[in-house]
Specification:
mainly alpha, 315 residues, globular
Length: 315
Amino acid sequence: MATTLPMQVIEAMAERPMRMHHALWHISRNGWATFSPAQRDAFRTRGWEPPRPAQKANGQPEFDNASGEDFLFMHRQMIAEVNEILAKVGDPQHPQVEGWPSIPAPGDADFPVPPAFTVPGGPDLTTNIQNAKTEQTFNRLHDLEQQFTDPSILQRLTLGRLGAGVEFTVHNTMHLRWSEEMPEYRLGGDPFNVDPRFDELSYNWLADFYSSHVNPIFWKLHGWVDARIDDWMKANQRTGPVPWTVTPWVGPMPPGHEHHTMARHTLRAPVDKGEADALRGQIDDLEAMIDDAKATGTREPVPFATIDWSPRDSV
C-alpha cells in the first residue's frame, strides 16, 4: 500500500479506549434492532443506547431517522482529531487527512486491491470480502460514486439519507475491498474479544470495527466519504456550518471529549497521575460494557455488511 501516516497518529488510533469505543459505537447502532430486552438493558445502563439505530431487524438501513447524520458526523470528528495530531507533528508530507479524490480502479499502482482470503469461522464475512474484491464490485462502486457526486441526486437527498446510503454501500464495501489477510483475527470465536494482544499496532485489519481506524487506508476511504458532505452542501447551496438536524451521537464520552474521539493525542508526552487515573477509568468503563454484553449473549453484527441499494431508489 502506498499510503502512510506518522507513527503518532497510528499510536493514538491504536490506544485501547479508542479501539473499544469505535467498536461499541458501531455495534450498538448496527445491532440494536436485533438485541433482546436484556441486551438492550445492558447497553442502555452504561449509556450505549443509540438514539437512532442504523439498521432495521432485517438488516436494511434506517434511511429516515437521521442515523446517517450520526455516521457522517462521527467520522468527520475522527478526521478532525487526526488533523489535530498532524498539526502537532508538523510533517510537511502529511499536513492533513487527504481522502481519495475518486475510488481507485482495479490495477491502481498506489492502492492495489489485496487478494481474497478466508476468515476462519466467519463464512458470511469471508463471502462479503471475496465479493468486494471483484471487478464487478468495482463497476458497482463506480456507478454509486457517480450518483453520490451528482448534484441533481444530492439535491433530492436529506443529509441523513445520504449518510445511510454511503455507509451501507460504498463505505462498507471499501472496508472489505482493501482488507488484507491477517495472521490472526479478533473476531474468531468471541465477537467481544478485547485481549490486549489485539491492541498491538500491527493489528490494523480494515474489516474489524476494533482495528479499522488504525489502518492508514481508513483515512483515505473516510476522506472520500467526508467529501460527500461538502458535495451535498454545494449541491444544496448551503454555506457555513453543516445543518445537522439532530444532535449527532458519538457515544458516551469522557469530560473534555464530547465532540472528539477517545484518542489521547499528547504525542506520547508523560501523563500526570490525574490523567492516568482518568484513562484507567475510561478503560474500566468500556471493559465493563463489553463484559455486560458478553453476559447477555450479545453477538457482534457482521462487520461492514453491504446492501444492494441505489440513491436513485431513495428519493
